Amino acid sequence: MYFQLLSTLEAPDRRKDSHHDRMLPYRRLQQYAITISIISVVYNGLEGGVSIGFGAESKSRSLIFFGIQSGVEVISALLVVWRFRKIVKPGEERGTALSSKDLQFEKSGTLGIGILLIALGIGTVSSSIAILVLHREPDTSNASLIISASALVIMVMIWLPKRYLATALDSSTMRGEAICSLSCIQLTCVLFIGSLIFRVWHGGWWIDGATSMILSVLFGWEGYKMVVWAGSKEFTGGCCQDCRVRPGVEQQVNNDAELGGSTNGNRECDCCSDPEKGSCGGSDTDKSDVCQPDPEVMCRDPFGNVYIPCCQSGSNILGGKCCEQPATNAVIEKSQATIPSQKRISESRDLEKKKSVSCCSDCD
């Protein structure tokens, strides 16, 4: 199953926008998500018990904390099982927008895993401070090295399917579980490498604590973003809050080509492209560079109306995107000539100073 999953799931950057373009049916993806999560629960439960047992016997705080970290991963995986416990019938596919019940499950799962990541971050910071202040040396026992080395190999094998499933299922809960697994892998790697370094260089006792502190900030931040995303009014349950499917626009996918846009038109993605620089809003060296709109990607409001290509920033009350990015007078004139009459271009009062233009759809 493991190698079949990795061989059939597409990488995130190559995945099609439509759920119907997946190589595996949604039902099968749900089954894989539950299976890999159950495997994660069983393995991390055993790993945590063994780590705490050896840690208590050898008075190793590192092993005890490692066991607690495994417990966090167990809870996170159980949340995924709870989220996908209701398997769809054969042949059914998830719609572009989740049902209100599934959306609530997704929100609760995302919030729960986000809180777990924050708690793990706080716990790791506290442990790291204690290591640095009290000058605690890494555990160099054979038990510590064997547990951390085996955990690295197995956890990477468990994490890879989660990473792909998060994208294939378009699930923020699954994405959070993948991040949680990655965080555990990173901490395990620090424990293993820190112990090896201390065996050959006693002056490197601080590497374990310092590195763990940096990592804790990173995945603590990921947890914070998940909590904020779960509490957002624009929460859709998708794994990517910057490029998300809008509820109620599933019919727009087939109409995009006819209206002059690409299939990206049904997503709230960055609809600005600079072909030369590959970025939006100019280069890093010259912030006043022109934002070059991509004619193949059109912004849309919830009713399918197309307005001029632009860079996005915020949204109006109806869900349409209000866009604002640097632009020159030439771009403004071109926009005024191509935008439909019911739309409008509002230039800023200090155009010469800011060189900005807003293309709006029903914006005040």
UniProtKB/TrEMBL annotation:
It is found in: Cytoplasmic vesicle, Secretory vesicle, Synaptic vesicle membrane; Early endosome membrane. One of its GO terms (cellular component) is early endosome membrane. It comes from the Eukaryota. This is Uncharacterized protein. One of its GO terms (biological process) is intracellular monoatomic cation homeostasis. The keyword rRNA processing does not apply. The keyword Transcription does not apply. Residues 344-355 have a biased composition (Basic and acidic residues). It comes from Psilocybe cyanescens. The chain crosses the membrane at residues 32-56, 62-84, 111-134, 140-160, 180-198, 204-224. Belongs to the TMEM163 family. Keywords: Cytoplasmic vesicle, Endosome, Membrane, Synapse, Transmembrane, Transmembrane helix, Zinc. Residues 341-364 are annotated as: Disordered. It is a multi-pass membrane protein. GO terms for molecular function: monoatomic cation transmembrane transporter activity. InterPro entries: Cation_efflux_TMD_sf, Tmem163.
